[in-house]
Every structure is written in structure tokens, then in C-alpha cells.
Amino acid sequence: MVATNSRQLVLIGTLGQLPVQFSFDSTSFTFRDSSKTSPDVHVPLSHVLSVDVSGSVVDAHVLVRNRGHLDVVNISGNFQEDDSEASSAAKDWVQGVMTAAYSGVKECRRLLVVVNPHGGRGKAISIFNHEVEPILKAARCRYKAVYTEYGGHAEEIASQISLDDYDAVVTVSGDGTVHELINGFAQHREPMKAFRMPIAPIPAGSGNAASLNLLGVEDGANVTAATLNAIKGRPMAVDVLSILQSGKRSFSFLSQCVGLMADIDLGTEHLRWMGSSRFTYGFLRGVLTRKAYQFSISVKTVMSEKEKMAEALQEYNSSAPHYDVPPVEEGDATALPPLQYVDKQDGWTTFEGPILHMYAGKGPFVSSDLMQFPVAMPNDGVVDIVIQGMISRVDMLKSYDGAETGALYWQDKAQYFKASAYRLRPLQEDGNLSIDGERLPFKEYYAEVHRGLATMLSMSGRYPVDFTLERPPGSA
Ligand SMILES: Nc1ncnc2c1ncn2[C@@H]1O[C@H](COP(=O)(O)OP(=O)(O)OP(=O)(O)O)[C@@H](O)[C@H]1O
Question: Where does the DAGKc domain lie (predicted)?
């Protein structure tokens, strides 16, 4: 072995018994076949899971992108066992790579993995065993896996979690389990501390908007990328809403909706076997019925001009990653945050009249084929609200085109607000109310945003979601 400097190591590797040269710099890890018969492989340092030296063997586990998919690759090389100088140089080199690869994050995280065997198409256990676990092992994470046994189990787990035992809670599920964790943290004896426990969702449900928002379109449905986020993502504060209904308070991290979109979500639960296609089916059924809903919606508006909101997003996304997680104040840990606007009358605007739906949410995507809130940000302290007025069946079908890229944003019959709170009262008997995809009674409720209350792991410190900010020609 020749250690030419602390960043480069030349070993006899196991890749066809050819000499392999490992090196790293501030951004990437490179392995090179020294005989130059195959091309160099560069791996971003963020994709280095572990590098180990044991005896005379140096062993690297890295993620390599292969036709868009991330695969775990294991490469090793060995040197003369009796060469103590080489052994010590190798140890220093390995330490150097690991420090660079885990810059700003702890190595060997302690993770609680909550797997919902029932979510989506029922594949979560297999996804955990075959895709997630090998990566956690390669990254030398210490983890405990729990399989949820009934609805509400994840909430119980979160309400009793020993906060000092884990660095993050990972879900192998859909958004419903993340919703349960958030509500469980709210019931913890130290809720404010519990909310600082980061959540890392791995997509295995039928609604996986949380991972889509955190990881972006390319990686949002990718189990490996989501597992990497659990290992290397940094805590990012995310806003959460209190939902107050009939005196009972619960929490929502993703969305609330009534009307067509709630019918699509909750009215297709029996079709879970279809995966996310059930939402497409629900939409087409909604076009046929084109049902008008009547609500009274009062909004404590902060912003409502679409251009300005699009500009605000651009500014947010071009600034440094937003990793500032507010500390838990002394003496604050046992009380939930107060509701600031529930009894206040000033600055509210009320809307009534027939609408297709009201959708409110905290992240760009609400499902893989709907970017309902393209200008949503994780921690701007407001909820995005869309009140979708009645449009023709033809326009409904047209609106389906481009829904996954946020095209609906510019539609003139879609009023869009950013608000710190809102109140919704149904003016009709029957309907669906969906909170993060879970059913709540179809009754009046009050919603208020708590800035940065909960925590999620993120690789980018924002929602890395592309949205065309320009108003398209022809839209009002
Ligand atoms: N063992 C279980 N049996 C039945 N239900 C369960 C079990 N474990 C969890 N659940 C429930 O499954 C629901 C779906 O959770 P999950 O987050 O995995 O998926 P989802 O994508 O949000 O929804 P779904 O796949 O149901 O459409 C949650 O509301 C949870 O309470």
C-alpha cells in the first residue's frame, strides 16, 4: 500500500485483483482502477456510507447512481498486514474520509424505525428487509425496528418514546404514520422536546407526500435516497398546524381538505390495492359528478398575490439551507404552544359560495401526481390555502394536465392564500374532511400554524421542488 497523502490511498483492491486507488476531496470520493482499464468512479461524499479498516483490509460502502437508481456498492482493498506504517496511515485516511463524509452529522445514528405492514400495498416489511436494512447496516447505524400492529400504534410509540435513546425516528410507511408520530409527540410528557425528535419518512404507503417534499421529484419515491436521508439528513424545523374541532386538539403536518379532493382521498380507501392510481380513479369520478360544496371559510391572510408568493419562494430557495431548529426553552418542554388567533376577530376574510374544494397544506406535493402548493415552504410560519371555485368538466380534465408540476397554481378560479390561521364551517350535511389523509368528522374546525414546531431530516434544508415561477401567457 502507498499512502501518498492523507486524502489518497493506493491499495491492491478486490476489483478483479487490480490495483485500486481510493481518494477523496472536499466534495467526492473516487475509486480508480490504477491500471486505467476502467473509468474512474466518483461518488459524492454524501453517498459514502462507511469506510472501515480492519486488519489489512480497507472496506468502503458507497451509494452509486446507476441509471437513476441508487445502489449500495462495496469495494475493498488490502495491504501487507505486517506493514505497521501502512496500517496507521490507512487508519488516518479512513478517519479523514469519514469526517468529510459525515460533515455536520453524527456517524452511526441511533434510529427507531417504525414499519407499517398495512400501509400502501402492504410491502413495507419487504421494503424494510431488502432495501432499507442493508443500507442502515452498511452505514453502521444502530436501529430498532418496530412493526405497527394496529391503527394508532405509531402514535402510542411516539407518545412514550425515550428521547435520549434515538437520534431520529424513521417511518417505512405512508404519510398516515408520520401524522401519527406528530400526534404522539404532542401527547409526550415533554411535547416540545419530543417535537425536536427528527422524523425521516421512507416511502412505503399509498400517499408518500412527506418524502416527495423532502427529497424532490427525482428521489421522492426512492427508498434508497430516503434511507440516505435518515442516515445523513440534517434536522430542519417544519411548521405544524393545530386542528381544533369540538374542543379536541390534534395536529396536522401535511394537509387538510374538504370537497372534491377529500372525496378523492377518503372516498377511495377501499381501493388501496391500486396504490396511488386510486387517486386518479377518484379524480375521474369527481369530474363526472362535478359536485358543488358549500362552506364558510374564514382566513387570517398573510399573502394572496400569486406573483409575490412565487417571488418569496424564489428568494427562500436561493438563500442558504434552512437548518435553524429553534431550541426548546427551559421550562417550556411540558406545554403545547398556545393558540394565538382562536379568539381574535381582526384581519379575517370570509369566503362563502359553491366551490369544488378547499385544500390547505404545508408542502408542495400532496400526492405524487398533485403539486397543490408549489410555493409552500417548510418553515415560513404560514399554511397555503387553495379555494377552488367551480369550473367546467372540460377545465377540470385540462387541469389534470400539469397538476404534478404545479400548473394549477396560476388557474384564475383557484384562489391561493398564505395564512397564519383559518376556520372552516360546512354549510351542508354530508362530506369528507381529510387531515393528512386521515378522516375527521365533517364538522367545523379551526386551524393555526405553529412555526417550526416539528422536525424532519433533510438533505437540502428546503423542499427541493422545481416550480415554473412565471405566470403562463393566457392565464388571468
Ligand atoms: N397493523 C396495522 N393494521 C391496520 N392498520 C394499521 C396498522 N398499522 C398502522 N395502521 C394504520 O395504517 C394507516 C396508513 O398508514 P400509512 O402511513 O402507512 O399509509 P398511507 O399511505 O398514509 O395510507 P394508506 O396506505 O392507508 O393509504 C395509518 O392510519 C395507521 O393507523
Answer: 106-247
**Ligand 1 in contact with 378 (CB < 6 A)?**
no
Mind listing the pLDDT tens digit for each residue in 92-139?
A: 888 988 999 999 999 999 999 999 998 777 899 999 999 999 999 999
Best of 148, 157, 281 for a ligand 1 pocket test (most atoms within 8 Å of beta carbon): 148
Interface pTM, i.e. ipTM:
0.95
**Distance (Å, rounded) from C-alpha 165 to C-alpha 78?**
36
Look up residue 81 and give its three cell numbers: 498486514
Name the DSSP letter for residue 47: G
Q: What distance in Å separates the CA atoms of residue 174 and residue 196, rounded to the nearest whole number?
A: 21
Task: Quote the cell numbers at residue 334.
Answer: 411540558
Please, what is the Cα angle at 371 between 367 and 376, to 5 degrees?
Answer: 110
- Residue ranges and CATH numbers for the domains of the chain are 2-101 (2.30.29.30), 110-232 (3.40.50.10330), 250-324+347-448 (2.60.200.40)
Q: What is the DSSP string of 153-190?
A: HHHHHHHH--GGG-SEEEEEE-HHHHHHHHHHHHTSSS
Closest C-alpha among 122, 121, 127 to residue 170: 127
Say how many Å lie between the CA of residue 128 and the centre of ligand 1. Answer: 16
Q: Cα(396)–Cα(433) distance, rounded to whole angstroms?
A: 21
pTM over 0.80, yes/no: yes
